[in-house]
Structures are given as C-alpha cells and as structure tokens.
Amino acid sequence: MTQLTIYHIPVCPFSQRLEILLSLKGLQDKVKFQMIDITKPRPAWLLEKTRGTTSLPVLETANGEIIKESLVILQYLEDIFPEKLIAQSNPYKRAVENMMVRMEGDFVSQGYMYVLNQNQGRREALKEGMLKQYARLNDFLLEHSKSGPFLFDQFGWAEAVFTPFFMRFWFLEYFEDFELPMDHKYARVQEWINACTTHSAAQQVSKEEIVKLYYDYAKGAGNAALLPGRSVSSFTFEPHWRTRPWPPKDKYNQNPTDEELGLKLKV
Ligand SMILES: N[C@@H](CCC(=O)N[C@@H](CS)C(=O)NCC(=O)O)C(=O)O
To answer: Does residue 69's CB lie within 6 angstroms of at least one atom of ligand 1?
Structure first.
C-alpha cells in the first residue's frame, strides 16, 4: 500500500476533516499523520517540500508529491480509496453537497473573526453575523433535507467538512456564551449539529482540548503568535493540555500569565 503522510497541526479543524473521512472509510491506518509543532518555526525540510508556505495540512504522496488545501486533499483521498465512497455519486446530489461545501468559507471566517475579537463594542454585531451564518445553513437544510438529521441518508461529505468547525466553535460557547436560540430559524441546523458532533467518526477532539489550546485565539493571537507578557503559546505540546486549568471565560478583562494558564513546565 502506498505510504501517504499528512503533516498537520494538533486539533487543526482542517486536518480533522481528513481524519473523519478516513474514519468513515475505515482506513485510518492507511495514512501516517505527522504532527508539526506550530509554536516553533517550521522546519526547513518541511518548508522545502511546501515551497515556503506554512499552512497545514499538507499531504505527501509516496513519490514525494505535495498536495495542499484540506478540501483538495479530501477529494484526493476519496479518489485513491474508492472502495467506500463518501461523496454522493448521483450528479444532482453531489451538486447539492458541493453547494453546501461552498458555504463553509464564510461560516469559518465569521467564527474565527468572532473568537479573535478584542473589542467589546463589536460583540453584538459579531453574534448577529454568526447567527446569520447558522440561519443560512438552516435554510439550506430545510430546502434539501427537511427530515434530517444529515444532508443525505447518513453522515457524509458535507458533514466531514463542517463538523470540525461545529466543534471548534465550542470556543464561542465558552468565551462568548454564544448559543443558538431556541427558534425555528435554527432548529434544523441545531439538529444537524447535534447529529454531526456526536457521530462516532468525528470524536478526535474534545471541548476541553479546544478551549485550552485556542485560548490565545480568544485573546486575539492566531497561529501560535505570542501575546504581550507571555512566553509560551497555548498551542504548546507541553505541558499537556489535560494538566492545565480551564482558562478564564472572561477574555476581555483578564490577562493571565503563562503560570496561571499552566503553561510552564514544573522543574
Ligand atoms: N485553506 C486551508 C486552511 C488551513 C489552515 O488555516 N491551517 C492552519 C491550522 S488550523 C495553519 O496551518 N495555520 C498556520 C499557518 O498558516 O502558518 C485548508 O483548508 O487546508
């Protein structure tokens, strides 16, 4: 069997898509996942492979060919492991699936903009923007899959694309008390989210891990950038996230130290 390697960042939602697809196919062991520590500069050997780009995941084939972008890698894995297809094979259904996938960009950007926000005056507008994204998904599901819970008969392609972000946005629940109102405008998408996040193929991460690792995002620092006064990123491999306390929920008025966040190794 061809040896494929995926270079990835721990808890990265884009690489979780790939793990979910492989899990649906029952092929988790066909790909080697190699973790890259983003709190350190990218190793030269990796930058050489990617021709200088730092974004992950990246897949390397047995012949050393490099494939970037999670959705492109997802399709590649589907194509080389066709024994169990996850995408819809009927052209119309595949088009519906693809239309939904095209909605992920705005959804993802809105969620990250919201978590990175440091201006209390923008909270309400960001919340409204997020609700609009969920309402769009709700409407799409009502049009194409009224009875649910999934877009088609089972957890499939669209679910593999969106579920990691339903999980990532647990950080909005924690830091912004964001939740979908009990309203018909969100009922169908809430049903979808519940079915997606509890599915057995999508259990690679937990809320605790996400909230602890993404704390610096909540303080406005993405991609393991260091915040003023801090010397360790919340994305550090050590100390392990399980040993750290849950970070303060009030991200606007508190600036905890490395020690308070449990980020310093005890000597
Ligand atoms: N559009 C890309 C986005 C990937 C992405 O943003 N990955 C993040 C980790 S979750 C990353 O690599 N950040 C570090 C960087 O860009 O240098 C994809 O779908 O693969």
So the answer is: yes
Query: What are the CA-CA distances from residue 231 to residues 169, 259, 263 (Å)?
Result: 26, 10, 9
Phi, psi dihedral angles at 60 (to 5 degrees): -115, 125
* 4-80 and 221-267 share one fold: yes
Distance 104 CA to ligand 1 centre (A): 14
Q: What is the tens place of the pLDDT at every residue in 16-63?
A: 999 999 999 999 999 999 999 988 999 999 999 999 999 999 999 999
Summarize the confidence of residues 145-169 as an average pLDDT.
97
Q: Which phi and psi angles does 67 have, rounded to 5°?
A: -125, 130
Q: Going by CA atoms, what residue is nearest to atom 15 of ligand 1?
A: 55
Give the position, in ligand 1's atom list, of the atom nearest the Cα of 9.
9
Q: How far is the CA of 13 from the centre of ligand 1 (A)?
A: 9
Q: Which CATH number fits domain 4-80: 3.30.930.10, 3.90.850.10, 3.40.980.10, 3.40.30.10?
A: 3.40.30.10
User: What are the extents of the domains in the chain?
Assistant: 4-80, 91-202, 221-267
